[in-house]
Amino acid sequence: MEIKGKVHEIGAIQQVSETFKKRDLIVEYAENPTYPEYIRFEALQDKTALFDTLKAGDEIEVSFNLRGRPWTNKDGVTSYFNSLVVWRITSLANGAGAAPAAAPQYAAPVDVNTAAGEDDDLPF
C-alpha cells in the first residue's frame, strides 16, 4: 500500500530488546485539507534508517504493509491491533514540479525467428 503526505514528526529509535528496534513516523495526510489526518507508521529493524534523512515538512510517499494481530488479556477479552509497517520512503521534492525519472535504457530486441529457408522442427 502507498500513501502521499507530509512529514509531521519523526520519533527516536526505540530499542525494544537486544535484537529488536523500531521507530515511529507521523505523516500528515490531507485528503481533505480542511481536516488533515495524522497517521502513525512504524519502521522495524534496519528499516529505521529510512527516516534518517527526513525532516518535518518533507513531502513523501510511504510504501507500507498493513498488519494486524489479536491480544487476549488475563480475563479472556480479546483486542485487535493494527500497525502500518514502512518498507520504502520516496521523497516528492517540489511536489508535482519534480522532474520525472529518465526512461531506462534497454538493449535492442533480437530476432529469434528462424532464418529464411530453414525448417522449424519444433512440434508446437
In words, what does this structure look like?
The protein has 124 residues and is mostly beta strands. The protein is 0% helix and 48% strand. It has no helices and 6 strands. The protein has strands spanning 2-10, 14-17, 20-29, 37-44, 59-72, 78-91. Strands 1, 2, 3, 4, 5 and 6 form a 6-stranded antiparallel sheet that branches. A hairpin with a 7-residue loop joins strand 3 (20-29) and strand 4 (37-44). Residues 95-100 have low confidence and may be disordered.
Briefly, what is this?
The protein is mainly β and 124 residues long. The protein has no helices and six strands.
Largest beta-sheet details? 6 strands, antiparallel
Could you give the order of the helices and strands? EEEEEE
- Large-scale geometry: elongated
Q: Would you count the extended β strands for me? A: 6
Mean pLDDT, rounded to whole units?
85
Rg, Å, rounded: 24 Å
Specify the helix fraction band: under 10%
Low-confidence stretches: 95-100
Keywords:
124 residues, mainly beta, six-stranded antiparallel sheet
Topology:
Layout lengths: L1 E9 L3 E4 L2 E10 L7 E8 L14 E14 L5 E14 L33
Antiparallel strand pairs: 1-3, 1-5, 2-3, 3-4, 5-6
